[in-house]
Amino acid sequence: MKKFWIVALAALAPLYAENIVIQNATIMTVTKGTLQGSVVIKDGKITEVGEKVMMPQNATVIDAGGQYVIPGIIDCHSHIAVDGNVNEGSVSVSSMVDIKDVINPEDISIYRALAGGVTTANILHGSANPIGGQTIVLKMRWGRDAQSMIFEGAMPGIKFALGENPKRPGNPQGGRGATQTAPARYPATRMGVEDTIREAFNEAKAYKAQWDEYDAKVAHGEHPLPPRKDLKLEPLKEVLEGKRYVHAHCYREDEILMLLRVADDYGFKIRTLQHVLEGYKVAKEIAAAGTGASTFSDWWAFKIEAYDAIPFNAAIMQKKGVVVSLNSDDAELMRHLNTEAGKAMKYGGLSETDALAMVTINPAKQLGIESRVGSIEAGKDADLVIYDRYPLSDFAKVQKVLIDGRLYFDRDSDVSGRPAKALEKQKLIDKEKQSQPRPAGGRRPVG
Amino acid sequence: MRTLGILIGCALAAGAASNNTVLIRGADVYPVTSAPVKGVSILVLDGKIAEIGLKVAAPKGVRVLEGKGLRVYPGMIDSATQLGLSEISAIRETVDTGELGEFMPQLRALASVNPDSEHFAVARIAGVTGAMTFPAGGGGGGRFGGARQYISGQAALIHTFGWTWEDMAVSGSAALYVQFPSLGPSGGRGGPLPENIAELLGEPGAGTFTEMTRTYKQELAKLADFFDEARRYQKAKAANAAGFVPDLKYEAMLPVLDGKVPVAMAAATPRLIHDAIQFADTEKVKIVILQPRELGSAAAELKAKNIPVVLGKVLALPHGQDDPYDQAFTLPAEAYKAGVKFAFGTFDNEFVRNLPYQAATAVAFGLPEDEALKAVTINPAQIWGAGDQLGSIEKGKSADLMVTTGDPLEIQTQVKHVFIRGQEIELSSKQTRLYDRYLNRQ
């Protein structure tokens, strides 16, 4: 049943034209201002943006009169499209596991995210471990296979996690006074979280030294025995070499500062602090470390480490020189990150461009893909969203979404296709009813 | 813990002048129950709206608020919260929803409302001046588990500002919260549990359709039995029979049986809504439906019987894999077209301030904007029995007002002033104080 729907929806999507021109739109480029005009797309790339453009031959024209075009939204923190649990929580350091191995291209959340204007998402391992699994950047190419969803050339990442979540397995029954029924897993405190990360990088450094020595000998023409490949330490070695980004889940100022200092000590960079709800308290230190911050617009009070969260967090960090993005961490919130950007204008008075940047070019920078996506500029991927009205508003809705110049979401087709799909579903239900004789004790509900 | 310290340290900072008399001059007034008027003044005397007009004389000594270029709306009312009852949802010690017990109509949310909860400050400076606070969330047995609960207690309609819960109360018993049985593991709130998980958890209704139906009918019968007992109690009391002993549970049912207090019940699907209405008919009680996710054939019935509905969350995922992506976004427009009366509820605490944005999303997907505004002002006031006091700018009503820079449903609009019963509320919360402090950090 599920498969059928995926195929049915996918069939709507790939309206592929070599050349597309989006006309008469208000184009919010993010990096080059806002203008009335057209976007020209050839072979999946933006070739021209302007008030007047050269019309290519045989172009499909999308008339976006009265509508708005923004770059495809980039969510720097998501867990959609993952097959099953996002946490390998049995160990404190699970750097050997990789989200790339469990991409589920049929997750309906991908389509729903598209319908909310998201074209790229950073898909992360969960936050159960101080050092979690490897992460992957996906384009929401709904209808394609797992491999085709991967953002080609995007730097791979790894999830770290600080605070309450990685502590939880150390306190299986919720801490003090509780009767422990499950064995505790180290760590149980923020102290232990720091130690776990230090121990891991201590090991990784020694491991890297073995390989460096080996590589040096090979470079000198020697033929030494290679060290044994360690699947846990290999990604950490990549972190030390700057070949893998660290995306660290964190809330409180103390743990944020701790991680920045641990990274200093071991000579690596934290690429992004995720959630970073108290980032506004240590914005100066985050900016000095050259670390990005990816936060919620207004989540707070759902747990004690989120009690000092303020909706002005993004604005303060931005004003103090941090590259800030707004993320969802949630399949629903993911569908309206444009309104979350609007909140950055409401809370802290950011400009429209600075706010919109927080869901487009800034997350692109944080993921190292800003040369490809995040703004509407000639030469970039044609990942675009068309809204029916001013997009930094909750009155706006997404009309069309293009990725690589292909139409992956079209509201009109979605709505007009519903009766046919309902009919198709009923047929399948009828067929299933006929094919299944009623077993004794009743049958399971269908649908 | 250090954060809790701040909470205690910053007691009610509302502080405003002790008087609740003010003249808002020359503002654009959106009364909700009538057409907007530009450039008029509102005189608030002793917490009530005394006059609205082009030329309103300010009595001597009355504070004048220049309203030029600003808009005045009635304060918003959130029809489904746990405000004052839950501080940090993950920490049980700070949560007072979800009591134990199957039939608990005697429990009242009001007397457990903490007026100093930080959530109030956050909500009221966003223009939410009133809220229904419920003794339990959806599902069964409260948020932190427990046995199946049928009646959770009395929900209160409160102002979001006051020195004590008595001070805050509009109605201590605005509804009786009944957890109407549901077919299968997916109740009104949140997403469905996968069948295999539901089975593992031993959720009622898990298993075969026959078993599900059986459990459902048993639960319905059990709920009806309790109402029958309450009726017998009512008769016994009226008869003043010898040896009559008051019972707190049944006593709490009397206003419901008399039709003075509605039962509020979550019902997700047309069938459940139909059954809930039938239950209310049989028991001859007033009913408000909470959190439907689909109205379908039940819409006509709701309209015909004039039964109001609390819609929310609008910003929610579709129920099933193959449901339209905008299922929850379009439901309010559907309800409106069918003529069903409704209010919005956030069914939340942390996100009460986003009530207007939930309403706005419904507008993006087809609901007329003035209807969205009614659904956060006059409709909830009427549904919860305070239509003569709250929800619109009319002479004689409580001066619960917000003064804004624009359309309150629009995200970028700023709330400039908030009045609750005529008293101006200081627009600060723990969050604004942290903002000021850290923006200026050296």
Residues in β-strands, percent of chain B: 15-25%
Please state roughly what percent of the residues of chain A sit in beta strands, choosing from under 5%, 5-15%, 15-25%, 25-35%, 35-45% or over 45%: 15-25%
Poorly predicted ranges of chain B (pLDDT <50, ≥5 residues)? 1-18, 138-145, 186-197
Low-confidence stretches of chain A: 1-13
Shape call of chain A: globular
Largest interface in this structure:
A-B, 54 and 54 residues
- Average per-residue pLDDT of chain B, rounded, comes to 90
Give me the number of helical elements of chain A.
Answer: 14
Description of the structure:
The complex is a heterodimer of chains A (447) and B (442). Chain A is α/β, with parallel strands linked by helices. Chain A has 2 domains: 1-72 and 374-447, Urease, subunit C, domain 1 (Roll), CATH 2.30.40.10; 73-368, Alpha-Beta Barrel (TIM Barrel), CATH 3.20.20. Chain A is 31% helix and 21% strand. In chain A, the strands form 2 sheets. In chain A, strands 1, 2, 3, 4, 5, 6, 15, 16 and 17 form a 9-stranded mixed sheet that branches. In chain A, strands 7-8-9-10-11-12-13-14 form an 8-stranded mixed sheet. The longest helix of chain A is centred in the middle third of the chain and has 30 residues, at 190-219. By secondary structure, chain B is an alpha/beta fold. Chain B has helices at residues 2-9, 118-124, 165-168, 195-201, 209-239, 248-257, 270-283, 298-304, 327-337, 355-364, 369-374, 378-383, 430-439; strands at residues 22-29, 37-45, 48-53, 63-66, 71-74, 76-81, 128-133, 151-159, 169-178, 263-266, 287-290, 309-311, 342-344, 401-404, 415-420, 423-424. In chain B, strands 1, 2, 3, 4, 5, 14, 15 and 16 form an 8-stranded mixed sheet that branches. In chain B, helix 5 (209-239) crosses helix 6. The longest helix of chain B is centred in the middle third of the chain and has 31 residues, at 209-239. Classes of the chains: A alpha/beta (447), B alpha/beta (442). Chains A and B meet through helix 2, helix 10 and helix 14 of A and helix 1, helix 2, helix 5, helix 10 and helix 13 of B.
